[in-house]
Design a protein that fits this description.
BirA Bifunctional Protein, domain 2, 2 domains, single chain, alpha+beta
């Protein structure tokens, strides 16, 4: 009987799962389509006795509406769910990421940090001071007498004080009444450290320095130094030598020779220049070491008692040693770099050869 078929189809329809587009399609074709199961039953209406036709027809219509409603609801739900997904839903999130392009450390940073680490291991802590400096800290306190030719050893960039806007402003322009300059060496920080700290002092002072030089492969108007200062009771030149030996052997290895060549600096007495075996030719002689087999890496000496006194430390009680080394010079030896200008030109072909960050 048709009524039984209707009941059976009703049960079948409500058992269908309508979660995917494919299931929806199949449902529509199987039950609602022109050749579907419902159309089939509508065809059979003509076999129903006339007195029952109306009731059975209503039943069939209700089933058709219910089936259509189920289909439409499921379709809306599916559309809403897909609309909330990102547009690139087809993207495979398990793929490995494209690596970021990493930078490399600048060779001067690498060398500076290695130098500070080596001195740090024997108790030196880092101090810093200003690059714009006054004459006292860059020269006078360091025992450079006024108008003494030693000041010409380092061609200085002086900073012109701001011009007063009008003669009335001149007295009150706010400009410092001491001449300012770009520090020519990191030795200014020695004075600043001694002014503010009591011995024992063990400091390393890295920084940038400036000199009025024409730029070439071997000279620059801006470069870097690491200054060192040790002040305590009973410090001798033997302590200085031992510290320099330790540093050079840590940085370059045990087979490097070191020599102290007598020299002059106003702030040390006695003074020496530190030479090491030329690393380019291993001491045989080349154009970098001017065929001497030695290259200079810095200056050093016993802190002049005048400098201690100028900085507020009693030279009767304390003595000290100091040094100043060029970071560029050491980086050139370590990495066999032959032109100072490479450090500041930012050529990626040069910079990419160094350690990654
Ligand atoms: N300030 C010197 C320069 O720039 C280097 C130097 C020499 C620093 C001897 C020192 C030192 O502390 O004791 O040429």
């Amino acid at each position: 009987m048709l009524q039984d078929s209707i009941a059976g189809l009703e049960a079948e329809i409500s058992a269908q799962e309508l979660a995917t587009a494919a299931q929806l399609d199949a449902f529509r074709i199987a039950y609602l389509g022109r050749k579907g199961r419902l159309a089939d039953l509508f065809d059979q209406l003509k076999t129903v006795p006339a007195d029952q036709k109306r009731a059975v027809g209503q039943q069939l219509n209700q089933l058709k509406q219910a089936a259509q409603a189920r289909h439409d609801e499921a379709q809306q739900a599916l559309e809403a769910a897909t609309a909330n997904q990102p547009a690139d839903a087809g993207y495979d999130y398990t793929l490995p990421p494209v690596p970021h392009a990493l930078g490399t450390r600048h060779p001067l940073s690498l060398v500076r940090e290695e130098m500070l680490r080596i001195f740090g291991r024997i108790g030196f802590s880092v101090a810093e001071g200003p690059e714009i400096e006054d004459d006292w800290h860059n020269f006078t306190a360091l025992n450079f007498p006024e108008n003494h030719p030693a000041r010409d050893m380092q061609d200085t960039f002086f900073i012109a004080p701001p011009a007063p806007k009008s003669p009335l402003d001149a007295a009150d322009s706010g400009a410092p009444d001491v001449p300012l300059l770009l520090r020519t060496h990191t030795s200014n920080v020695q004075v600043r450290v001694m002014e503010t700290q009591a011995p024992p002092i063990r400091s390393v002072m890295p920084g940038r320095v400036y000199r009025n030089e024409a730029i070439s492969a071997r000279a620059h108007m801006m470069f870097h130094q690491v200054e060192g200062l040790f002040v305590d009771e009973g410090v001798s030149f033997a302590d200085l030598k031992q510290t320099v030996y330790y540093f050079v052997n840590e940085l370059f290895g045990a087979d490097i020779n070191i020599r102290f060549r007598p020299s002059f600096f106003p702030f040390t007495e006695p003074s020496a220049e530190i030479d090491i075996t030329c690393l380019i030719c291993k001491g045989k002689g080349c154009n970098i070491c001017k065929y001497s087999g030695w290259v200079e890496i810095g200056g050093c000496g016993m802190v002049d008692p005048n400098v201690l006194e100028n900085s507020g430390i009693d030279p009767e009680k304390y003595s000290g040693y100091a040094w100043g080394m060029g970071i560029e010079r050491i980086a050139m030896l370590k990495y066999q770099i032959k032109d100072l200008r490479l450090f500041t030109e930012n050529d990626l072909r040069f910079l990419r050869q160094f350690e990654a960050v």
